[in-house]
Amino acid sequence: MKQRKIPMRSCVVTKEKFPKKDLIRVVKDNKGNVAVDLTGKLNGHGAYLKKDLEVVNLAKKTKVLERYLNTQISDDIYDELRSVISNNS
Q1: pTM for the full model?
Q2: Could you tell me if 13 and 62 are in contact, meaning their C-beta atoms sit under 8 angstroms apart?
Q3: Structural domains of the chain, ranges and CATH numbers in brackets
Q4: Closest to 68 measured CA to CA, from 42, 54, 48
Q5: What is the pLDDT averaged over residues 29-52?
């Protein structure tokens, strides 16, 4: 039986490659709204983060998500990312 291909994505903070299901996607839609995409299927430009609180804190400190998505990221998004990671741990 043929083995299924696992989609790999890079974390925008650490630049490490992980399977897509091991990362959290933050997406900006065509209206400029930013959301945490837990399904990985929302339309828009996405950026992936490793499921680690230190990575989320570093992303906020260095504003790497703002550069990748070319928009302002509110603190609510970072809080939502932290709560998703805390609930999964």
Answers
A1: 0.92
A2: yes
A3: 8-88 (3.30.1230.10)
A4: 48
A5: 95
